[in-house]
Amino acid sequence: MLIAQLSDTHIAVPEDEFSELYHPAEKLRNAVRHVNASVNRPDIVFLTGDLVNSAKAEEYVILKEIVAEFEMPVYLLPGNHDDCTLLRKAFPNHDYLPSSGTLNYVVDGWPLKLIALDTNIHGKPQGHLGEAQLAWLEEEISKEAARPVVILLHHPPFKTGLTSMDAMGLLDMDDFVDVISRYDTVERVLCGHLHRAIQKLAGGTLVQTCPSTSHQVRLLLGDNNELGTAFEPPEYLLHYWNEDSGLVTHSDYVKEYDVAWTLKDGVKKA
Ligand SMILES: [Fe+2]
After folding, report:
1. pLDDT digits (tens, 9 = 90+) for 211-248
2. How many structural domains comprise the chain?
3. Which domain holds residue 193?
């Protein structure tokens, strides 16, 4: 099983100065083409939040048109830049999204159980789960005696050292970590929000954040962390599962590179 994780697509309307700076829609179109044509073609795709930039209905119209180009099932999670009501309204055909309440859901039918959580606090950059969502998460995890569980949520449940981003973190991360620490079946926690690939062990499980398809957050750690972005290349993650290897995560650029050498053909001439 192969899962592609794309994140922080931040779609904006073309006339927005954000679009002039980052070109997020064009970059997501490139990412869709890349994923569809990849030799490592995923079975399913997750977009782990900040789907749009300013929580406007027009942005979801653009997102919907681009997402429809994926040739495999796509699952959407909200981030802090999203509006859950507009998101639900824009994607009535995405019937895994609950029709009311928080946008939590389970994707079944695979060797892994995939649980998506909604960390959005309307209008705020931080994330929050709360008792009800954590109880629902625990109930869903505990249904699985042996099948591995992967949890997806926008805000990572750990402090990253990018202190300006940590100020916009998951408010009840300790409660989330308490829940996952009680279950050996939790194989991985997959997040967005940081616009970088970062890993940390939390509650006995590897937590992984995904780079953005649009722009990355500058790597400035500790006290020297003024919030800023950089035109580092668009990236995404491929999570490869089989019985022998377990879940292995690879990062890939949204770009085709020329082959330099192959065992069969030797050095490729330019
Ligand atoms: Fe973001």
Report:
1. 999 999 999 998 888 899 999 999 999 999 998 999 99
2. 1
3. 2-267
